[in-house]
Amino acid sequence: MQEGERKMGRTKEWLLTRFEREGPGAEKERLWLVLGGGGLKGLAHIGAWRAIQEAGIRVEGILGTSIGALVGVALAAGMDQEELEERARSLQPRDIVRTQRRALWVNGIRSPSVFREELLRRYISESIPVKSWAELEIPVQMNAVELGSGATEWFGKGAREDVAPADAVYASAALPVFYPPAEIGGQYFVDGGTGDALALTRARDLGATAILGVDVGSGPTEDAERVVKGGLVAVHQRVFSIQSGTARRAMLEGWKSPPLLFVRPHLDGYRTFDFEHAAYFIEEGYRATRRALEEELTDLDAAGTGRRVGDWPE
User: Fold this and answer.
1) Average pLDDT rounded to a whole number, residues 96-123
2) Residue 192 in this model has a pLDDT that exceeds 50
3) What is the rounded distance in angstroms from the CA atom of residue 269 to the CA atom of residue 91?
4) CA angle, 10 then 15 then 17, to 5°
5) What percent of the chain clears pLDDT 70, i.e. is strictly above it?
6) Among 284, 73, 289, which residue's Cα sits nearest to residue 172?
């Protein structure tokens, strides 16, 4: 047996021991999966799920932000892994991107977004085979930020269930400048990553006794010249990434409990809409998550503190 398979077998044994306790007085462990935002890099979540399933991990709940919300609902709905990966690999610009003509005019700066929302909404609806939260096999929540108040709103099981899953996913993924805000009940919502791109503290608040978080956001450094050459949209996106990354690092540096397995795939240098690298994103999500499970999860609760795994620069 190869070393990786031996470690994975030990990991599964540990998980079965800890997370499948039964009998009177047994305290139920709750492992939550947190999927972050990061544009198409979030397709890595699909590969991460493959590794999680291979390890035999039972997930009690899923929190998703932006593309993490879309993938999270698809996973919770029980979609077949092969179908998920095939849809991701075949994703093309024409499936979710259609430029607002007004954005190309001289006064286009007053346009609400660069892209129109219809294609993304259609893709979301076609990608999640449920119409209500009650149909999901695993509880899911996702976040979006209300433009007026700046407050984070949570949608899904145990939160706002008056909004259809597809509409909530769009709200969570409505990346400012790229897509128009989502209008819900007279309020306007934008991408959940505006407030919290990796909802670890929300998982803790919901009672998670352990968390597996997959971070696909941009890293702390970037080629500034390339950003500037990309124009105002690229500059805006970089500023958005800097703010989000700063918040994520601060949260991780101060993390105490519950135990956290933090997975960060090698995705730096890739952009929000790198369609041509979809296959790599999936496989890198699988590789990074499997490696983290093999090397770290058996010791996750030994120290009783948070643990960071992956390639986040110190």
Assistant:
1) 69
2) yes
3) 20
4) 95
5) 80
6) 73
- 300 by DSSP, 3-state: which? coil
Q: How far apart (Å, rounded) are the C-alpha atoms in residues 24 and 207?
A: 20
Question: What is the pLDDT confidence band of residue 233, given thresholds at 50, 70 and 90?
Answer: confident
Which pair of tokens denotes residue 195?
Answer: 């407030």
CA neighbours closer than 13 Å in the CB half-sphere of residue 226: 8
Torsion angles phi and psi, residue 58, rounded to 5: -95, 120
Residues with Cβ within 8 Å of residue 204, at least 6 apart in sequence = 211, 257, 258
CA atoms within 13 A on the CB side of 204: 13
Mean pLDDT computed over 166-188: 95
Asked whether 258 and 211 are in contact (CB, 8 A), the reply is: yes
Q: Which residue in 10, 29, 13 sits closest to 210, CA to CA?
A: 29
- For residue range 57-84, what is the model confidence (pLDDT) as tens digits? 999 999 999 999 999 999 999 999 999 9
